[in-house]
Design a protein that fits this description.
322 residues; alpha/beta; single chain; TIM Barrel; 12 helices
């Protein structure tokens, strides 16, 4: 837990004024309280949901943040173009206005997703996330290396982790973890590659953002992978392939990416998350085509689909507890 003295030193380094200092420390206090509650009572384990701003396309943050609590969360994951526009909105409105908007809606920044920056250009984003008490940056690995043979691939993953170390050092000093999403056609694409990344990461603040969508839709295999990752699993995307997300299709078909809509049985996955006492973020997720456009005209309509997916997941968890 971060002490008041440590918080003061951190804010002094960041050059925050008194108003920002008070806001930052309120966020830190709330975060520490939440972490202590989640960690102290093992019997009260549950999923810690975060809402992806990209689900709302290019809608304004002023329309999205009131939906966070309705969706069953207190936390937001900011996405940039092309998937959303909310990270750019923050830059346009300024940090002070963004902080006030978070406070007004009782929402905390948890994740900044920066596939646009890649894994080696996150210095500014680390400072941004630290300012608002966020804990995780999600990004991708290196594209075009998925075809390598096993021994070569494993070596390239070790090299990738070595290249990441200066960036991970900065992230660790700021109390932030960098999570790499598994993605088709990238260095971290297969279950083996995901395991090797976790193994190579060791104690570094480097984790996995696991996207079942990009893997074989086999519940048993996915559950086994979750068990193997254990504490290196930083983000779990509650996201299945359904009918894909690379071409326009009717909403009913597109929404099959959400939990409870497509064919993937999430029960073994949630059981594995429960077994490892998963303490990272769970993000109900899908992609809309074209990217950056909301699937429904209004934020409340989109939230209805997210709530339905959450009810499906919570129904499974209820069964696992009995």
């Amino acid at each position: 837990m971060i002490t008041r003295r440590e918080a003061q030193k951190m804010n002094a380094r960041l050059g925050l004024n008194r108003r920002d200092f008070l806001k930052a420390n309120l966020l830190l206090s709330a975060q520490c309280l939440a972490e202590s509650l989640w960690g102290s009572d093992r019997s009260s384990w549950g999923l810690q949901y975060v809402l992806a701003s990209s689900l709302y396309g290019n809608l304004p943050l002023s329309a999205i943040l009131p939906e966070v609590k309705k969706a069953g969360s207190q936390y937001i994951d900011l996405w940039p173009k092309i998937w959303g526009t909310q990270r750019e909105q923050v830059s346009a409105m300024g940090y002070e206005e963004f902080g006030e908007l978070l406070q007004k809606n009782g929402v905390r920044l948890a994740i900044s997703t920066r596939f646009d920056l890649g894994p080696f250009k996150l210095a500014d984003e680390i400072r941004f996330l630290q300012k608002f008490g966020g804990r995780t940056i999600v990004t991708g690995s290196i594209f075009g290396m998925h075809h390598l043979k096993r021994a070569v691939l494993k070596g390239e993953i070790k090299k990738f982790v070595e290249q990441m170390k200066p960036h991970l050092s900065s992230a660790g000093e700021a109390g932030i973890k960098i999570a790499i999403e598994n993605h088709a056609n990238s260095l971290i694409a297969s279950p083996d590659a995901i395991r090797w990344l976790a193994e190579s990461a060791g104690e570094l603040p480097l984790g996995i953002a696991l996207a079942p969508y990009h893997l074989r839709q086999d519940s048993a295999m996915l559950a086994h992978l979750i068990q193997d990752l254990g504490p290196k699993l930083a983000v779990f995307y509650a996201w299945q392939y359904g009918m894909g997300c690379m071409k326009p299709m009717p909403p009913k078909e597109e929404l099959m990416q959400l939990p409870g809509r497509g064919k993937l049985d999430f029960t073994p996955l949630l059981e594995a998350l429960k077994n490892i006492r998963f303490a990272g973020w769970t993000e109900i997720f899908m992609h809309h085509t074209p990217r950056g456009v909301p699937i429904w005209p209004t934020a409340p309509q989109i939230t209805e689909d997210i709530v339905q997916a959450r009810q499906y997941l919570e129904g499974i968890l209820k069964g696992l507890r009995t």
